[in-house]
């Protein structure tokens, strides 16, 4: 089977127009027609029904089934091209969210430096949700990701390195500041300052709020945790952040939550299944595994 035929067919399903598909791939329209005919012969099924009188086409049920499978085949093929082309390269394409880069990556940075590995690392710092997609797409090789539940993503191997509780933070003058533990429902009337983008914290805020039975009134979003703590300290609102980010110098009060919500900031070391790291990549990954011992200590 010609994988190019699958690419043509997938585009036809999406565009519903032979001329548009031919233009996308810079080929003639008969090329697309012949490709579809080859696939229909291969699978002994009608994939496309054309109504020439009304200039329309319909993708049959077998055609839709093939389209779904073709998406996986083409994705795997693109990934194979990327990995084969980079097989002998020394570069380590590494992703981590800013919070992990600030709090936990420094715990192993010294060892990476002493082994001479840092010079090979190309780091992408983004939210965990974005990095997860980049990892699946083969844009990065290894990542430290945060999630509210231990990761169980198809196509990925994830090793849980540590789990950290979330805390509500308020200013020292807040009415709840003298409490050590609260129910999240006690924050129902507060203004919330939240992290933006595909971060773990917004999901935790949604889960805690849903359990408490209210929609949080978010007055400001920012990707900067330091700014969040500064705004909370100044009394502009409250927030929900992972407890390990809070220090005495932040001038905020961290409150434990009594709600039986399972959300934690779970940090995992993640690679694609069937990823074959070279020697430098293997050594880099082995050093990252050391973060688990730091969490257990």
UniProtKB/TrEMBL annotation:
<keyword id="KW-0804">Transcription</keyword>
<keyword id="KW-0238">DNA-binding</keyword>
<dbReference type="Pfam" id="PF03466">
    <property type="entry name" value="LysR_substrate"/>
</dbReference>
<dbReference type="InterPro" id="IPR005119">
    <property type="entry name" value="LysR_subst-bd"/>
</dbReference>
<feature type="domain" description="HTH lysR-type">
    <location>
        <begin position="1"/>
        <end position="58"/>
    </location>
</feature>
<dbReference type="InterPro" id="IPR050950">
    <property type="entry name" value="HTH-type_LysR_regulators"/>
</dbReference>
<dbReference type="InterPro" id="IPR036390">
    <property type="entry name" value="WH_DNA-bd_sf"/>
</dbReference>
<comment type="similarity">
    <text>Belongs to the LysR transcriptional regulatory family.</text>
</comment>
<keyword id="KW-0805">Transcription regulation</keyword>
<protein>
    <submittedName>
        <fullName>LysR family transcriptional regulator</fullName>
    </submittedName>
</protein>
<dbReference type="InterPro" id="IPR000847">
    <property type="entry name" value="LysR_HTH_N"/>
</dbReference>
<dbReference type="Pfam" id="PF00126">
    <property type="entry name" value="HTH_1"/>
</dbReference>
<dbReference type="InterPro" id="IPR036388">
    <property type="entry name" value="WH-like_DNA-bd_sf"/>
</dbReference>
């Amino acid at each position: 089977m010609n994988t190019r035929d699958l690419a043509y067919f997938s585009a036809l399903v999406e565009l519903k127009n032979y001329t548009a598909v031919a233009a996308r791939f810079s080929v003639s329209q008969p090329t697309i027609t012949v490709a579809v005919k080859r696939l229909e012969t291969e699978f002994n099924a009608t994939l496309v029904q054309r109504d020439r009188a009304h200039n329309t086409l319909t993708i049959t049920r077998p055609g839709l089934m093939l389209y779904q499978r073709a998406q996986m085949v083409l994705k795997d093929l693109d990934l194979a091209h990327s990995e084969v082309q980079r097989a002998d390269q020394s570069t380590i394409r590494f992703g981590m969210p800013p919070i992990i880069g600030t709090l936990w990556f420094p715990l192993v940075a010294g060892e990476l430096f002493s082994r001479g590995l840092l010079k090979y690392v190309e780091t992408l710092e983004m939210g965990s949700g974005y990095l997860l997609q980049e990892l699946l797409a083969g844009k990065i090789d290894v990542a430290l990701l945060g999630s509210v539940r231990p990761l169980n993503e198809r196509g990925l191997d994830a090793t849980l390195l540590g789990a950290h509780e979330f805390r509500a933070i308020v200013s020292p003058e807040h009415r709840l500041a003298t409490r050590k533990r609260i129910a999240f429902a006690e924050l129902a009337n507060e203004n919330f300052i939240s992290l933006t983008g595909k971060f773990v914290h917004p999901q935790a805020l949604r889960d805690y709020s849903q359990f408490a039975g209210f929609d949080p009134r978010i007055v400001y979003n920012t990707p900067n945790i330091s700014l969040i703590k500064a705004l909370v300290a100044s009394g502009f609102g409250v927030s929900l952040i992972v407890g390990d980010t809070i220090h005495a110098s932040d001038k905020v009060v961290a409150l434990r939550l009594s709600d039986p919500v399972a959300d934690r900031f779970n940090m995992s070391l993640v690679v694609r299944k069937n990823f074959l790291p070279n020697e430098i990549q293997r050594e880099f990954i082995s050093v990252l595994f050391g973060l688990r011992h730091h969490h257990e200590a």
